[in-house]
Amino acid sequence: MATKNKITIELDDRTYRQLQEFAEKEGLLPEELTRQAILEYQKKQFFKGLNEDIETVKRDRPADWQQYVEGQKELEATLADGIE
To answer: Can you list the alpha helix ranges (DSSP code H) found in the chain?
Structure first.
């Protein structure tokens, strides 16, 4: 089981009401909704970084990107052959 730490954060009235409202709507405690929001943000940041890395490879290493694309095409062709 994860260790729980108790902290206090200050929220403006509007944000506090929204947190309560959203948590109630989802049937969650506010801290559970907060945890989910943090996980979603973490996922968003991961994919943002991944997309930035892909764009860097496309821009700075086009031959490597083309090799990757060709490899993906080959993989897709093997998946479409019906053999498992």
So the answer is: 13-26, 30-60, 62-79
Q: What pLDDT digit, counting tens, does each position of 3-35 carry?
A: 888 889 999 999 999 999 999 999 999 999 999
Cα separation values, 31 from 9, 23, 53, Å? 11, 9, 33
pLDDT band at 48 (very low <50, low <70, confident <90, very high): very high
Q: Which of 64, 2, 60 is nearest to 35 (CA)?
A: 2
Domains of the chain, residue spans = 13-79
Predicted TM-score of the model (pTM): 0.73
Phi-psi region of 32 (alpha: psi -120 to 50; beta: other; left: phi over 0): alpha
Tokens (6 digits) for 60: 């700075």
